[in-house]
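Posting this for the archive.
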Amino acid sequence: MKTLGYYNGRYDEIDRMMIPMNDRVCFFGDGVYDAEACRNRKIFALDEHVDRFFRSAKALEIEIPVSKQELKDLLYDLVQEVESPDLFVYYQVTRATADREHVFPADVKANLWITLRPFTIRDMRKPIHLITLEDTRFFHCDIKTLNLIPSVMAAEKAKRAGCEEAVFYRPGGRVTECAHSNISIIQDGKLVTAPADHLILPGIARAHLLRACAVLGIPFEERPYDVDALLAAEEVIVTSSSKFCCRASQIDGKDVGGRQPEMINRLTDYLYEEFLTETAETD
């Protein structure tokens, strides 16, 4: 298969899969998801992503119909069915298939979805452009839910502005995260990233970035910072499961960063090498 879609035990090419209209995802976006890169049929940071997936489901009181190990085994089995060894692995669980009613349906199982598509990690040395937008999302950003309309609208605005990402800020100017990434800055030689509270999703790539700082002896701090600090930063770093450490060179049409290239290169090299090592082919 060139792509793969899975739904409750059935799988086929994605465009041939059929989903019930009364899956609650269609009415309410009632579910959670996670995703990560796969290279040489090895899924990167799988344990961390699966742990977060189960935490998100628990926060919404959704019982995933498989155990953590069963999910990991299933993902690796499905990876073998796709022609490309390099994939983007996406999975979500939705509360149930039931008549449309806001309250939780009783005595029904959750639905497990999986999609696999060919994917290659982008060149992280190429800088990206950003825009800033007020964060109009709700106060459960720490749960990786399927309610992504604000992020969808922000991503479209960024695209129309010729940018790759949108940076969210709350009233008062506090920077939270991006439409589908985390964001950090380098200020006075120190990496600063927003605290892992209810206003951001604590990304797996963000965690790897902080661990890289610890290994490389780069000081870091988790604390709030505002748009003014973002625009004045020595560097601006965007992280996600598809871009481990990308430098931003422009925000709202203004040049930013570019004053700590050696630190950026050290972090980028470390994180990319970590990915290559953990996903290397084995005999």
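The longest helix spans residues 261-278. The first strand starts at residue 4 and ends at 7.
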